[in-house]
Amino acid sequence: MKVKSQIGIKNIVKRIIDDEVPALASELSYSLILSFFPFLIFLMTLIGYLSLDTELVLLQLSKILPDGAYKLVHDTVLEVLQGKNSKLLSLGFIFSMWTASTGFRGVIRGLNKAYDEKEKRSLVKVIIISILCTIGLTFIIVVTLLLLVFGELLGYFLIKKFSIPESFMSLWNIVRYAIILTSMIFVFALLYRYTPSKRLRWKEVIPGAIFATIGWIVVSIGFSFYVNNFANYSRLYGSIGAVIVLLTWLYLTSITIMIGGELNAALAFDRKVKRAQMS
Q: What are phi and psi of 134, to 5 degrees?
């Protein structure tokens, strides 16, 4: 008896609807908006101890955030980044780790639903996994900012230190962006492998990780371009327009993460179908 393959646009869309991905993404984006500023305050305060230029660091965020949301983030964290308050660093770390981990617990429920799995782990283990995922996200953000801010300076340092031709800069720019993409794929792969209750292998989560990485970049740049050039949220929502833009961006980010997990689950079911057909 032949069984239809799980792969295809229609099947993916059906899975997204059946597993209530938009609703789970709303839950995740709500948790992320609660943790976004404490997390960002912690991150920016931490980076402040590295003596990075305030404007230079924040400028990197403007490449992915729409203008209104960027201005909101800029004004909120600027004073914190310059102050380097150690108490705020500690409080920001504790609060952001806890609130962000609640968002990742939403991801865990969503991915378990995608694989038709019931949660078999203890609540303590789930919380620990959620916090580790948050730390992983912190790591990738720090690495990304460091490579974006210091990448060019590091390239010129290598040229001067080892007497490398100036043409090396073109290769170095490719390498540093490749490192950023690889790091993002690795973190998403960790997320997809260890958050579901189902045991998965690395090769089973890479497709979704690649999709989430590319999808997040495309969605972020596309949404930023749309808001900056076509949509006027300030006219519609007034002073809270920037908050609406930020929340929408986090929602689109959540949707992308959840779809990456659904893609991995669809591929897993497809492999199961093919094995059944061969037996």
A: -65, -45
Run of H or E including 264? helix 241-278
Q: Which residue has the tokens 């984006």?
A: 29
Which tokens go with 169? Answer: 């800069």
Distance CA 255, CA 245 (A): 15
Chunked mean pLDDT (size 10), the chain, 279 residues = 58 83 81 69 64 65 73 71 56 66 78 86 86 72 66 76 81 85 88 88 93 91 82 69 82 90 88 76
Q: What is the pTM of this model?
A: 0.77
Are the C-beta atoms of residues 231 and 276 closer than 8 Å to each other? Answer: no
Task: Name the helix (H) or strand (E) containing 138.
Answer: helix 123-162
Q: What is the pLDDT of residues 92-141, one digit of tens each?
A: 567 666 766 776 777 888 888 888 888 888 888 888 888 887 777 666 66
Angle between helices 67-83 and 54-61 (to 10 degrees): 150
